[in-house]
Write a sequence for this structure.
């Protein structure tokens, strides 16, 4: 069904040259990846600081690795959904296009997106705490937990950003500039409560850009949105793309 909101969003996108997209866990929900908040979410009943903070890791690296190993295991064989597909194809459709994600699952890339701005790292990346060596490793399960650096024997950690840590500054800088310059920012499947990622929505709005929210439920920043598209992104984004005349 074509709603008034969908038509309005399509018109905004069709008339824009500089587009940015910010995604969160919801964009991967239809691929079968659990979100963080809400019932059945990864954080439900779990003290976040135990498994997603530097202190939690130093206190018990094995517990933290078991948590990430379980998430890695669940991602094996998971495929991008039609929402990821649309966001990947849009990279050829606009003069400037930035795909910014809080997700660590790598599904945007699997859908064909390149130059994805990963604000929170990637779950398939591993970093040595001693020598800083980073590597991509899709081994599941690791032969030994916690994994050790082949170069120096140091303790390795997941290559994701934890609570209390800085985001990769180069990535954040490009994302911030993209949000500032975007004529339209499409915010997909995020509760918009974790900063500085959520702040990008406010940056676009402050600089006069329009915000389109795609989410079955209103996020914490829904009030900033010019258009709210209520529904799962795997359904809404293909319909939006079809209406814009851009590939779906
Ligand atoms: P959340 O779990 O906080 O929010 C998921 C959002 O997706 C909610 O607003 C849902 O309504 C929405 N949603 C659910 N199903 C959807 C669907 N099919 N289509 C579209 N939207 C859907 O996840 P994030 O906002 O990504 O950070 O969380 C932000 C950060 O908090 C994560 O990157 C992670 C987490 O703690 C770190 O670990 C540092």
């Amino acid at each position: 069904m074509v709603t008034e909101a969908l038509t309005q969003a399509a018109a905004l996108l069709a008339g824009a040259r500089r587009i940015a997209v910010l995604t969160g866990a919801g964009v991967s929900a239809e691929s079968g990846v659990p979100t963080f908040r809400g019932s059945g979410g990864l954080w439900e009943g779990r003290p976040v600081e135990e498994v997603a903070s530097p202190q939690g890791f130093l206190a018990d690296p094995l517990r933290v690795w078991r948590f990430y190993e379980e998430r890695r295991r669940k991602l094996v064989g998971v495929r991008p959904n039609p929402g990821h597909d649309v966001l990947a194809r849009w990279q050829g459709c606009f003069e400037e296009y930035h795909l910014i994600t809080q997700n660590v699952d790598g599904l945007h890339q699997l859908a064909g997106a390149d130059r994805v701005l990963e604000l929170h790292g990637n779950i398939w990346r591993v970093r040595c705490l001693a020598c800083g060596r980073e590597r991509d490793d899709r081994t599941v399960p690791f032969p030994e937990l916690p994994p050790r650096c082949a170069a120096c024997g140091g303790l390795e950690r997941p290559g994701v950003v934890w609570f209390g840590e800085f985001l990769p500054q180069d990535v954040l800088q490009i994302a911030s500039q993209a949000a500032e310059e975007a004529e339209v920012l499409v915010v997909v499947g995020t509760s918009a409560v974790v900063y500085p990622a959520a702040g990008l929505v406010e940056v676009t709005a402050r600089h006069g850009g329009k915000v389109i929210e795609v989410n079955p439920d209103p996020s914490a920043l829904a009030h900033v949105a010019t258009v709210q598209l209520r529904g799962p992104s795997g359904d809404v984004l293909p319909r939006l793309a079809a209406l814009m005349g851009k590939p779906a």
